[in-house]
Specification:
Shape: globular
CATH architecture of one domain: Orthogonal Bundle
CATH superfamily of one domain: Cytochrome P450-Terp, domain 2
CATH topology of one domain: Cytochrome p450-Terp, domain 2
Distance between the termini: 26 Å
Largest sheet: 3 strands, antiparallel
Strand content: under 5%
């Protein structure tokens, strides 16, 4: 058997038209468009691009937006079952259960055709934020807030979550967060989605596979870890000592390092700028100052002095933004999933279109007991 790469690092497993990464030059594209361009658009445009392969016209955008708005509400049974969740769990567990329950009432449950899967995809993108918001409201013993069809996708989620219409900047930043989270080639959760889809299982099951994988601290869970790190530091004056201690003890600094990027993650630069604007609007620079100090120390000690390619990734400043948006830490990874679900769905659809069962081999390193 040929040599293997642990963690499948650098192994090309399939072909895709959905996204492109150049980790040396710091390039990320969705269907040929640079992420810096796409971050200026609406999340609805990105959903259309990923699912349908092209950016929408103004008319298509409005029609697509209305389709999402009309499908936001949960069916009565899914709403009821959320009340019985264990509220000590992370929101990712709640989202996983909600997606599974939503499949029971999906009118296209028993069909796996492309048209029906597109319909399922639109419903899943529309309903997932509602499920997360309802979970948190019920957990806080507050009345649930129904979707507002007058609000765009990201604004509506913050409205359902907090009970007040967000500021223009808050809505813009969460819109960008969903865009930057939407897709990232064959990451661990997307690979899990494609493996499930390759068995010709249903699209809800494929998305559940993605959610379970994204939950891990080495993947989407890193945002939660960044938020916890900021809370643990607590004071900008304590930041350098805290980071130096991590480096001294060779501990992982959450929000830094990436399997693919050998330079700064292009999404991280966008998040840094947005975090500063949000800090200025809130008139509270604490979290931003802590973050910039962490970045400074890591760059100085690990990159400049030791020559390591440990640069900040997408999770670092997104964790800072969630602090300013008053996002409860237990929701951090679930909100990442609300953006990433679109990319997962695009990959599931691509897998179904030209399917071959994904079934790699393992290199056996155990003993062989030969019969006497």
């Amino acid at each position: 058997m040929k040599d293997f790469k642990k963690g499948l690092e650098g192994i090309i497993a399939l072909e895709t038209e959905i996204s492109y990464i150049d980790g040396v030059k710091g390039i990320l594209e969705y269907r040929g468009y640079r992420i810096e361009q796409l971050a200026k658009l609406s999340f609805v445009s990105i959903i259309h691009l990923l699912l349908h392969g092209k950016l929408p016209t103004i008319r298509e955008h409005d029609q697509f937006s209305n389709m999402l708005k009309e499908r936001r509400e949960l069916d009565v049974h899914t709403k009821e079952v959320i009340h019985f969740y264990n509220f000590n769990i992370e929101a990712m567990d709640a989202l996983m259960t909600a997606i599974s329950h939503l499949s029971h009432s999906d009118p296209d449950l028993n069909s796996n055709s492309h048209e029906e899967n597109i319909s399922k995809a639109i419903r899943l993108i529309a309903k997932a934020p509602t499920a997360v918001a309802y979970f948190q409201r019920i957990h806080e013993d507050k009345e649930i807030i129904k979707p507002n069809e007058l609000l765009p996708h990201s604004s509506n989620f913050l409205y359902m979550l907090r009970g007040e219409i967000p500021t223009v900047l808050e809505a813009k930043i969460l819109n960008v967060d969903f865009i930057l989270s939407a897709e990232h080639e064959l990451n661990a959760s997307t690979f899990a989605v494609r493996v499930t889809a390759s068995t010709l299982s249903d699209i809800h099951s494929a998305i559940i596979s993605g959610i379970g994988t994204l939950k891990g601290v080495l993947h989407g869970g890193a945002r939660l870890a960044v938020m916890n790190m900021l809370d643990e530091i607590g004071d900008p004056k304590k930041t350098e000592k805290y980071v130096m201690n991590l480096i001294k003890n060779k501990q992982r600094i959450m929000g830094f390092g990436h399997r693919v990027y050998k330079v700064v993650d292009p999404r991280a630069d966008i998040f840094r700028d947005l975090a500063k604007k949000l800090a200025e609007e809130k008139k509270d620079m604490k979290w931003y100052e802590m973050a910039t100090k962490i970045e400074e120390v890591v760059t100085r000690e690990l990159v400049e002095k030791q020559g390591k390619t440990i640069y900040m990734n997408v999770d670092f400043y997104s964790g800072v933004i969630y602090k300013y948006l008053d996002i409860p830490p237990k929701l951090a990874t679930a909100i990442f999933a609300l953006g990433r679900i679109t990319g997962w769905l695009a990959h599931a659809l691509e897998q179904y279109k030209d399917n071959r069962l994904i079934r790699p081999r393992a290199k056996y390193i155990g003993d062989h007991h030969t019969p006497e």
